[in-house]
Design a protein that fits this description.
262 residues; alpha/beta; Rossmann fold; 2 domains
Length: 262
């Protein structure tokens, strides 16, 4: 018993502890595993963050990375290669879906190496062997584009890497409005420094000089970073071409066609 316990009395100390625990429970802090403290003690007597706190910590990081909330904590293993988004059997497309699963699993496994210029080589169409780095995923609605973007961004974050999910429409909105100049600079810095960038919902946009110039600026920043980029398109690569640096970013990608779920 400590001197502090002697002064206040054991009963009073226990009541204070129980009161604090109850307050933490009401506030949603901790869980039964850590006795609602947020930390556990290992066999060596060292404290570590409880899994409940790690979950909250990562959820906040996913939120800051703009990952769609409905896909929080999804992993590559949640990929369903037997049925589509609406539960429809994929039939002959199952083979493509299984190959997609194998690819994203391999990418996930080697993510740290890919982001640190130690990318493994793979053999793809035409027997060409090249480093697995940036990828352009093409597929229609429900083919899994947003799912792949979200799970790989989250996996990168869990591995201690920096990553972010973007929608191209949101990027264009920022790049074309003068009052959002600071945000455009922020995106440029993110494209320079983030370990992994995923840009979803690439569409064909009407030519607009200001946006093309700005898009080229951030594309150049990304290319010069040497870090991988994941792009997701509803159509083929030629339909989203616009600007030399943007085109170079597209051409730096291996193209992967996702299963047709219709």
């Amino acid at each position: 018993m400590s001197d502090f316990d002697n002064i206040l009395g054991v009963d009073k100390i226990e009541k204070l502890r129980e009161k604090a625990k109850t307050e933490r429970m009401i506030e949603g802090k901790g869980c039964s595993l850590c006795d609602y403290s947020g930390y556990t003690i290992n066999e060596d007597g060292l404290s570590s963050m409880c899994s409940c706190q790690k979950t909250k910590f990562f959820i906040e990081l996913f939120r800051l990375a703009d990952v769609p909330a409905y896909l929080f904590n999804k992993t590559v293993d949640d990929w369903n290669f037997r049925t589509g988004k609406n539960g429809k059997d994929l039939g002959s497309q199952q083979d493509i879906s299984q190959k997609t699963y194998a690819l994203i699993s391999f990418y996930d496994k080697h993510l740290i190496n890919i982001c640190t210029n130690q990318a493994p080589k793979i053999k793809h169409s035409g027997g060409i062997k090249q480093p697995l780095h940036s990828i352009l995923f093409e597929g229609g609605t429900g083919s899994g584009k947003t799912f792949i973007a979200a799970v790989l961004v989250q996996s990168a974050i869990k591995k201690g890497l920096t990553a972010k999910y973007y929608k191209l429409s949101d990027i264009i909105d920022i790049l074309t409005k003068s009052e959002k100049y600071d945000q455009a600079d922020r995106i440029n810095e993110e494209f320079k420094n983030l370990d992994l960038v995923a840009i979803d919902c690439i569409q064909q946009y009407d030519y607009y000089a200001k946006y093309t110039l700005q898009l080229d600026r951030i594309s150049s920043a990304r290319l010069n970073s040497g870090k991988p980029t994941l792009l997701f398109s509803d159509g083929n690569a030629s339909s989203v071409s616009n600007g030399s640096s943007w085109n170079s970013l597209l051409h730096s990608c291996i193209t992967v066609r996702l299963p047709n779920v219709r």
